[in-house]
Amino acid sequence: MSTHVTDLLRPDGRLLVRSTEGWTAEAAAFAVEVANGRGATALAHIDGDSSAEYAALVAAGFAESRRQAVVAFPAEPSLDAVPPPGIELRSAADVDEDRLRLLDDELREDVPGTSGWRSTPGEFRDHTFADPDFDPRTYLIAVDGESGEYVGLVRIWMNPRGPRLGLVAVGRGHRRRGIASALIAGALEAVRASGASEVTTEYDLENVASRTLFERLGARRLGTRIELVYEPEGVASGVG
After folding, report:
1. Are 62 and 99 in a shared domain?
2. Do 29 and 12 share a structural domain?
3. Per-residue pLDDT tens for 137-171?
4. Statement to judge: residues 43 and 18 lie in one domain
5. Would you say residue 208 lies in a domain?
6. What whole-number distance in Å separates Cα of residue 229 and Cα of residue 41?
7. What is the pTM of this model?
8. Alpha helices in the chain (DSSP H)
9. CA geometry: angle at 22 spanning 201 and 61, to 5°?
């Protein structure tokens, strides 16, 4: 009997499970069986108002890990588009691919739910440049003009349903300089040129810096996304 459950082992060693027809008791039990068989922590995401799916996953052994706000903000930026002195914005298509991969790994350490992320060169290429939603104009890297160090990035995926902000992040030693604001404003220029008027994204409800940034962008709340985690016995998830 089909449970319509798919799974994907992420570069952080966690298993992302999805049910294409909703999380029923049968589908949730099958996801647990897959996670146990592969010896990997499983992650499932549901809408905040999906009480039946929530109950099915919890009954199968999943536990709530975190909640995210789902928001949309206008493509017309309310932020200063000028990078701070010494910082240049470059397209992902114009920087060193391997150094960009390492920057992505580094920045994910501070993103809730993705600590321990380590992409291979092939994985990173497949999930970036080979992604049909990749647009070199909306994937920008902040580079220190003097040292050449890659210090931050923004990526907006131009998918058919509308642009989605996948990540904006700046390295620990370069924050509070306006780099994130400049990255977003730069990427939004290309979003507007495409004819889109709005961008969607999610952020962790406990992340004060993200909430402040999106409030400044004029974001409006669309809903909530809940992440639930199942940990097979003897496997530490590190989710957080």
Report:
1. no
2. yes
3. 999 999 999 999 999 999 999 999 999 999 999 99
4. yes
5. no
6. 7
7. 0.88
8. 25-38, 51-60, 97-108, 121-127, 179-193, 208-216
9. 95
